[in-house]
Amino acid sequence: MLIDGHGRKVSYLRISVTERCNFRCQYCMPDKPFSWVPKENLLSFEDLFLFIKAGIDEGINKIRITGGEPLLRADLDKFIKMISDYRADLDLALTTNAYLLKPIAKKLKDAGLKRLNVSLDTLKPAIAQKIAQKDILKKVLEGIEEALRVGLKVKLNSVPLKGINDSEIIDLLEFAKSKNMNIRYIEYMENKFAKDKLQGLSAQEVQDIIATKYSFKSVGRVESSPAHLFELEDGYRFGIIDPHKHDFCEDCNRIRLTAEGMLIPCLYFDEALSIKESIQKGDVQGAVKVLKEVLANKPEKNKWSSDDENETSQRAFYETGG
Ligand code: SAM
Ligand code: SF4
After folding, report:
1. Would you tell me how many other CB atoms lie within 10 Å of the CB of residue 317?
2. Could you read off the pLDDT of 94-143 as tens digits, one per residue?
3. Tally of domains in the chain
4. Is 271 helix (H, G, I), strand (E, B) or coil?
5. Which of 122, 175, 200, 279 could cross-link with 127 by S-S, CB 3.0 to 4.6 Å?
6. Over 90: is that where the pLDDT of 34 sits?
7. Protein residues with CB under 6 Å of any ligand 1 atom
8. DSSP label at 156?
9. Where in the sequence is the domain holding 128, given as residue range(s)?
10. Is residue 244 part of a domain?
11. Bridge partners (DSSP) listed for residue 15
12. Residue 166, class by beta-carbon neighbours within 10 Å (0-12 exposed, 13-18 middle, 19+ buried)?
């Protein structure tokens, strides 16, 4: 069992398989072109798998593959199959922007993927183009349809932004509900790569908007999940993730690994240690030692704050995978 320096059990590994992305979401990517990490600097799927096996043996029981855009990495289905063949009962999930999903959804399902989170901030093509800085919506919606068709469980992630998509909170809820998908609104987390002047809606503002049309009650958080759940009168549940209040840090069970082999203990902070050298030498125990060191120093909570002077993280979401 993996326990961090604050006594929290860590059982959830999030792996960013690439920091590259085919979108330039305003809240995530820098404006200016920048150079990607050269492909040869990334850990191979074989190396990542070595670490994953050790992690599972130490008590990891949930893995999420993320990015950047994970579907940009070739042979992702084969990687998923490697993991699911090792431990079929693992909670194995993927977070994607769904732009490339349609042709690969069935392969991912057949490889052993259980669940998908898809980022969907709007149902309007022009707004989608504004947020992602590319004409994306048609392909994203087709990807979602196909994932549902092949039997993947799909959850939507949506980041409400003032003056951009805040008029669509209810439309997105109704879209998700009509397709039997859950939706989670994620408060915008301030970070130095995001476009200046972006302003997110608070969890309370999202609730206030939904309350203009629906009655709902709070049903709290499921342990270790960051989302606070709410239930409409007909039983449909939606979630809101509120990183500016730190209640979910109390039972945070996560550790993040980047494509370059950096282990990151908290999404907010810059601290990280590398497992690359150990794992590339085949020294799995060395990598596990690094993992335990990172966990021993995992911060107690993030620093996004709920007052007006929001703290800004120096970490890139496209690198850590959110
Ligand atoms: N490219 C994939 C996608 O967009 O789903 C996976 C990586 S993305 C970094 C993972 C999640 O982080 C997405 O749901 C995205 O909306 C969220 N995200 C990125 N930047 C964010 C920010 N500044 N605040 C809140 N959520 C953010
Ligand atoms: Fe790419 Fe996802 Fe970041 Fe958007 S949120 S730029 S899709 S990594």
Report:
1. 23
2. 999 999 999 999 999 999 998 999 999 999 999 999 999 999 999 999 99
3. 1
4. coil
5. 122
6. no
7. 21, 27-28, 66-67, 69, 95-97, 119, 157, 159, 186, 188-189, 191, 194, 317-318, 321-322
8. E
9. 12-156+250-320
10. no
11. 65, 257
12. middle
